[in-house]
Amino acid sequence: MARYQADAAFICSIYPGKLPVIRRNYGTSVHGEGKGANRSTTFKLEPVARGEKPFVLPIYDSFEEILDIAGLSAVTNTPKKPRISKPVPVEAIVADLLKEWTGGLFNVPAGAMPGIILLNPMKVELKKFEADNSLPGPNPGELQQMIAQQTAYFEYLFSEGERLDAQKEWKEITDTMKLAADWLGHARTWSHRAIARDSSPCPLCTEIIPNAAAVCPRCHQQIRELPPEIARLNAALRKTA
After folding, report:
1. Handedness of CA 156, 160, 161, 163 (dihedral sign)
2. Least confident of 17-21, 48-52, 75-79, 112-116
3. In whole angstroms, what is the distance from residue 65 CA to residue 28 CA?
4. Rounded to whole angstroms, what are the CA distances from 198 to 81, 111, 201, 213?
5. Is the distance from CB of 181 to CB of 189 less than 8 angstroms?
6. Is-contact 118 94, C-beta < 8 A?
7. In Å, how far are 40, 162, 181 from 156, measured between CA atoms?
8. 15 contacts 47 by C-beta, under 8 angstroms
9. Please, which contacts does 93-97 make with residues 24 or more away whose CB atoms are closer than 8 Å?
10. Strand-pair partners of 56
11. Taking a C-beta distance cutoff of 8 angstroms, is the pair 22, 99 a contact?
12. Res 119 pLDDT > 50
C-alpha cells in the first residue's frame, strides 16, 4: 500500500499583535484511535515586529472523526457509536483560518486587513520543504501585498483613534488602534502605552495630563493636593507677597 502523503500549504503573517489561537477537532493522523492518533490541532500566529522576518505557519491535509451513518444501523445495545475518518483538505483549513484571522472586519476600506496571506511557493521551495522542512518565505510581490493591506487596515484604525481622541472619548480607543499607531510610526499620547498608562483626563478641562500632576498644565487649576515641598514654598511666597 502506498504511503499517504499529506498536501501542505503555508500561511504567512507580518501582523505585530496577538491573534486568537484557533483549535479545531481534526489532525494529521489518518487513524483516530491508538498510538500516534491526533484529533485536535492548534493554530497560532506569532507576532511580528515591523521590519522583522515574516512568520510562516505550515498547514497540512487533516482528518476528522464523523459518525458512521452506514454502520450505525448494524450496531445495537452499545453506547459507543461507530465513527469513521473523513479527510479535511488543506484548502478548506486555510480558508477557515484566513476567515478567522482576517475576516469579519466591519466598516474598513476594501482590501484593508491584517497582513496575513496564503503563500504560493515555487516548486524548488516545496521540494526543499519536503527534504528538510525548510519553510518557504514570501516573494517580493507577496511581501508587498501584506504590507499594503496591513497599512490600509492600520491607517483606518489610526484615523479612528485620532477621531476618538479629538472627541475626548479615550475609553473607546482600543488596543488595536494603539497597535496601529505604533506600527505606522505615529507617536500620539493616546497610543503610547507608557504614557496612556500613566496619564488620565483632567477632571476640569478633560485634557490628558500625567497622573502625578497636581496642577493641570492646560487650565492651570489645582486638581490634587500639592506635594509638601511645593506647598511649603507657596506658603512662604504668600507671606513675603
Report:
1. positive
2. 75-79
3. 12
4. 58, 36, 11, 10
5. no
6. yes
7. 36, 10, 10
8. yes
9. 93/9, 93/24, 93/26, 93/59, 93/62, 94/9, 94/11, 94/59, 94/118, 96/24, 97/11, 97/22, 97/43, 97/59
10. 12
11. no
12. yes
Distance CA 187, CA 226 (A): 30
Calpha distance 209→223 (Å, rounded): 11
C-alpha cell at position 44: 497560532
- Which runs of consecutive H residues, i.e. helices, occur in 87-187? 90-102, 123-132, 140-166, 175-184
> Which DSSP state fits 97?
H
pTM: 0.74
Confidence of residue 211 (pLDDT cuts 50, 70, 90): confident
**pLDDT bracket for residue 3 (50, 70, 90):** very low
* Beta strands 8-13 and 116-118, pairing class: antiparallel
Using a 10 angstrom Cβ sphere, with 0-12 exposed, 13-18 middle and 19 or more buried, the burial of residue 77 is: exposed
To 5 degrees, how large is the angle CA 165–CA 170–CA 174? 100
C-alpha cell belonging to residue 112: 484593508
Within a 13 Å sphere around the CA of 236, how many CA atoms are in the beta-carbon half?
Answer: 6
Q: DSSP code of 189?
A: T
Which amino acid is it at 12? Answer: C
The Cα–Cα gap between 33 and 13 comes to 34
Find all residues with CB under 8 Å of 92, minimum gap 6, and list them.
none
